[in-house]
Predict the structure of EBP2 protein.
Amino acid sequence: QDGLKQCLSELKQQLAWVERLDVTSDQVVDPVSQSASNKDAVDPENDFQREMSFYRQAQAAVLEALPRLRKLQVPTRRPDDYFAEMAKSDQQMQKIRQKLKSKQEAMERSEKAKQLRAMRKYGKKVQTEILQRRQKEKKNMLNAVKKYQKGLSDKLDFLDEEQTSSQGNKKGSASQRIKKGPNAKRRYKNQKFGFGGKKKGSKWNTKESFNDVSSFRSKVAHNKGPGKAGKGGKKALNKRPGKRARQKMKSRAR
């Protein structure tokens, strides 16, 4: 103890308190018991009690120092435009941002994967329910058919149900086709080749066409129309020029 006091006297400087800012607090008041806490009551092995005693001692020192600083007109609050340089560099903060961003993206990807798995499970569940329902309907219909064949039942309600279901499906598909309409490829083929229908035997005569002679033209039928000449019926426009005419044409071209 004497050695500590001697070192303290050597280190102590005769300066104003505002330059030293040292505070020696008295016994700290416990806020729970509202009484001075005994130093012997604090167990040094108990981390919580030890840290709380340090906290209360620092709090008492601050409460004692603040009025003295205000009396000396020393500002104790940080101004609004105060700028403090960060302890970490911009490169380090950029690395931290990239790491946080990668973590967030990984969490989003995992969340999307979870949603997709849940949707797949739900789709499989719906599909299995539909298949089970169809199997049940098929089984019921087969049972009804067997009963009817054995003479145990004389009702044919299952046929009506099947017809109504098939008609409903056809109506639904027709409405879908009407709403959707043909695609561009189908429209182009319709425009180019027509809309289908009977091709083979389309030019055969019928009873009505055989009796109808209003469109018959004898000149056309007997090869006597305009532009016909000679026995063979060759066109006059396609007559080949004679040999002398051809030679004259060649000499002119030279």
